[in-house]
Prior knowledge:
Elements: E1 2-3, H1 14-24, E2 27-28, E3 34-38, E4 52-57, H2 74-84, E5 89-94, E6 97-102, E7 111-115, E8 118-124, H3 139-151, E9 164-171, E10 174-179, H4 199-202, H5 207-211, E11 222-227, E12 231-236, E13 249-254, H6 258-266, E14 272-273, H7 279-286, E15 292-297, E16 302-308, H8 318-327, H9 330-338, H10 371-380, E17 384-385, E18 391-393, E19 396-397, E20 399-404, H11 409-425, E21 428-431, H12 436-446, E22 451-458, H13 466-469, H14 494-503, H15 507-524, E23 527-529, E24 535-540, E25 543-544, E26 563-564
Parallel strand pairs: 4-13, 20-21, 20-22
Antiparallel strand pairs: 1-22, 2-3, 3-15, 5-6, 7-8, 8-10, 9-10, 11-12, 12-13, 14-24, 15-24, 16-22, 16-23, 17-18, 18-19, 25-26
Helix pairs in contact: 8-10, 14-15
Amino acid sequence: MIRSKRSLTVVSLFAVLAIVLAACGGSDDKSGNKTSSSTKAAATPTDHSSGTLTVGAEQDAACADWIDQCASSAWGSYMMAHQTMPRVFDYVKQGDTWTEVPSPMSANMPVATTVNGKQVVTYTISPTAVWSDGQPITSEDFRYTWDQIVNGKNIYDPTGYDSIESIDATNPKVAVATFKENFASWTQLFGADYGIFPSHILKGKNRDALMKNGYTWSGGPWFFKWDKGVSVTLTPNPKWYGQKPTIKKVIFKILADTAAEFQAYKSGEVSAIYPQPEPSAIASIKGGVENSNSLYTADTGNVEALWMNNNKFPFNSVAVRQAVAYSIDRDAIVARLFGDLGVNKAVQTLNPPIVSKFADNQAWAGYTLDLNKVNSTMQADGWAKNGDGVWAKGGKAASFTIKSTADNKRRELTEQILQEQLKAAGFRLSIKNPSADDLFGKILPAGDYQLSLYAQTATSLNPGLCSIACSKNIPSKKNDFGGQNWQWINVPTLDPLLNTVDTSIVQSERITASKQADQVMAQEQVSLPLDPLPNIALWSKNITGPVGDNPLLSMFWNMHLWTVSG
Length: 566
């Protein structure tokens, strides 16, 4: 599944990481990530002696009902959902490949079979898996979760769940899902996207009302208390059936931006951060951060792009979308932002790196700065420049507004560069950046935009572009305006290809269809992939344990295994 959640994005750039690490004195750890450290004396965060760990968070969540449209912030998942919602799989790196492994909730790997011509997946729940009130996690929780996603209102994305015909909950510790149609990406279900919900607490009640402002139960290692706009505090769940947390309290301190986050880290106010890879942040890291370990990795599930509303003027014209792509020197933008790291090339697919085997990684390579192609493409579509040097047609100028997340310095710089490049090509770009909550919770789902700059984030190891590009997922009354195709992409030849990716159980067919889909999307220029950015994690040397980046669950997913000293 692909979700518009994370504000930090990245594309595979393994070759350039050596340059970054050479500047930082880095080395490889056993996971294949790149790590570095600085041993300068530093102020020890004052909270370690109390058993409290304070970390920085760049974003707050809009709500805590994880299947609702409002749950668009990745930081909500990092801070709360991943800490409290049981899930079928965890994700680990084996060699060079990320793979699914059973979570503590699962007794073993789920089994997929075919019964009477239908796909059937059997989930076996660990006998020790319980909710925080001591009640067992059961197959009825699977059935309740599925029912809420398929039949609930204002659902973020039902993809895959709507392929399930029924869930047999006869055995409390065995959930048997029978599919009405094949869903090849079944391993993304009941995982990091939504998790499992407690039926004995929520069934027959208003789930959204009970959860959106926080909840008091847990099926994970932590409870949370949410002070909106200020912090999220985690405390151990004594009924947790996995390895118990050793830290008494974790506080996510919500900070205004990356600069504030770095300042808080340097001063010892917070002990770990997962910052956006802004140029200023990279420069600060290269300068050396005291008493720190740092990690850089390009092995992620994220792609940032210029997302175009294919249903809004002027992007309802294929020619305009193509001409805009020919107006932009994407490599120059990347070099301007990250040239000091040797990162100079734009990404050429909307598929994230962790599913690169499904991607045509050169699909968009033909869209380079070419003003002659801009002119010929626009003129062939009936446009001519007006007295202001802006393309116009039918009395309407090719003027449009870009919307991204407010107070993001890297994106603001990107927008300014775009403004200059587009002006030279005959387009007028205005900038209007709302809050992340408004952008992802209101504006994009309503289609109230022309052009936007943000990241799409994978929540499983499966390709999932149908959720954001199939016509059936355009928000509409039919899907209760819960579809994730916020670009209003409606390309008849694209739907069957992406449907094959979702449904075929023949891997070679899925790969071929996915690469063909990349080519169709590039030809139609439905949106424009842009920035390749490395993930960054920094943490104090007072933190020990298996700390590192997880491309689907973030660096914070296994904090119950961390310890602090000081």
